[in-house]
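In this supplementary section we document a worked example of the pipeline. Step one takes a protein sequence of length 110 as its only input; no multiple sequence alignment statistics are reported here. Step two produces a three-dimensional model, which step three serialises into C-alpha cells for compact storage. The input and output of this example are shown verbatim.
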Amino acid sequence: GKILLSRLTAEAQQQWLDRFSLKRLTPYTITDPEIFLKTLADINQHDYCISTEEHELGITAMAVPILNMQGDTVAALNCLGPTNRIQHAYLMQNILPLLKQTAHDLRAIL
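The serialised model returned by step three reads:
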C-alpha cells in the first residue's frame, strides 16, 4: 500500500489520509499523519519500501513499484519473511535487486 500511496501527488495523499484513518495494527504501525507523509516521500525518493512489523508482528516486508510502459505505477511487488531471520543488509544486497529486476521484467507485459 505505501508504495502505491507514495506515487500519488501530495494532495491525493492528503485526501487519502482525510478519508481513511491510520489504524494501529501493531506497536510499530505508523499512525501519525506527518510521519506517514514523510515516510511516503522517502519511499518515493528511494523507490522501495521496507516495513518491519508494521502490519503484523514478526513479519518484515520489502516492496518496489511496478510501472507500465508509460511509466505509471500500476502495482507493487513485494516479498516478506520472518523478522527474526531477515537482516536489513541482506534485503538491500540480495532481495532488492531481484525485486527491481522482476518489476522491470513485468513492465513489458503491462
